[in-house]
Design brief:
CATH class of the largest domain: Alpha Beta
Keywords: Signal
CATH topology of the largest domain: Rossmann fold
Helix content: 10-25%
CATH architecture of the largest domain: 3-Layer(aba) Sandwich
Largest sheet: 7 strands, mixed
InterPro entries: Methyltransf_16 (IPR019410), SAM-dependent_MTases_sf (IPR029063)
Radius of gyration: 23 Å
Strand order of the largest sheet: 7-6-5-8-9-11-10
Order of helices and strands: HEEEEHHEHEHEEHEHEE
CATH superfamily of the largest domain: Vaccinia Virus protein VP39
GO cellular component, one term: protein-containing complex
Strand content: 15-25%
Pfam families: Methyltransf_16
Structural class: alpha/beta
Length: about 290
């Protein structure tokens, strides 16, 4: 072992500190183990559009600089912090509130990640499906539409604004949040739309669900493999031969492809849209 004189040790420590300052903790280590240097995380403040939001699944990163509810005293030592707290640095799914514009209407979503998890967050797949509807209003206008796994109900609300008769569904535990979000954005602001909420648990409610619809909408539905067969049964139950099914998702894992393969046993499935910025795909499906 080699020993250094005492006079050199402070110099070595100072050098290490300077290196850490020159390379601040703005690295993200993603799930595949790669390291990316990010100058900025999250989105610009204000109203979001399909062109200005960043991919919300930067959340696949293991480590981030800030969190929405970080215990940082912004009024005390923030000016001296190596990485100051900044609203712009918060990832989209961590923001307490997000605002969108569709068809000239402003929709505000209060996200409740800490209490309801993924159901109370607006993900890229939902935003892209909303934009797709906005660009192809004839797909839903005047149609009976159901949204599965609605969460915040953003996709269903856009369909309603485009003139569809909409039913938004999710598990019972999400219904209060879903209803409040819809009331705040549509019924509370004088919009005349046709939209209702109903609890629908694919594992037990599908067998007693007797309605069919012209259009079925779903975003990021296939993240729990154990639910695949129940979701497929539900899709069969609520659709007819002429029902249009639109599903948006990011293909992350083999299990995502597995669900699409399962669907093809009962449905003709085609990829009809791909957004390279967010890596979101939209699939069109109809019964054989």
């Amino acid at each position: 072992m080699k020993f250094y004189p005492n006079s050199i040790i402070p110099f070595i420590l100072l050098t290490l500190v300077m290196i850490s300052i020159a390379n601040p903790a703005d690295e993200l280590i993603n799930a595949e183990g790669n390291t990316e240097c990010c100058k900025k995380l999250g989105t610009d403040p204000g109203i979001e559009s399909s062109s200005d939001h960043r991919s919300d699944l930067t959340a696949s990163c293991i480590r981030t600089l800030t969190t929405a509810d970080a215990s940082i005293n912004c009024n005390k030592d923030n000016a001296l912090a190596l990485v100051p707290y900044n609203e712009e640095n918060i990832l989209p799914h961590q923001k307490k509130e997000r605002t969108f514009q569709f068809r000239g209407q402003t929709l505000t979503i209060k996200q409740e990640w800490n209490t309801l998890g993924v159901a109370a967050v607006v993900w890229d797949a939902a935003i892209i499906l909303c934009r797709y509807q906005e660009n192809h209003p004839d797909l839903v206008q005047g149609k009976s539409v159901i949204e599965l796994g609605a969460g915040s109900g953003l996709v269903g609300m856009v369909a309603a604004l485009l003139g569809a008769k909409v039913m938004v569904t999710d598990r019972e535990s999400v219904m209060e949040y879903l209803q409040k979000t819809i009331d705040f954005n549509l019924k509370g602001h004088g919009h005349t739309v046709s939209i209702e909420t109903r609890a629908l648990d694919w594992t037990k409610d599908a067998e007693t669900f007797n309605e069919t619809f012209d259009v079925v909408l779903g975003s990021d539905l296939v993240y729990i493999e154990e639910a695949f067969s129940d979701l497929l049964k539900t899709l069969n139950r609520i659709s007819r031969a002429d029902t249009l099914i639109l599903l948006s998702c990011r293909i992350r894992y083999d299990r995502d492809r597995s669900f699409l393969s399962m669907m093809k046993s009962d449905f003709n499935v085609e990829e009809i849209f791909y957004d390279s910025f967010t890596d979101i795909r939209i699939y069109h499906a109809q019964k054989w």
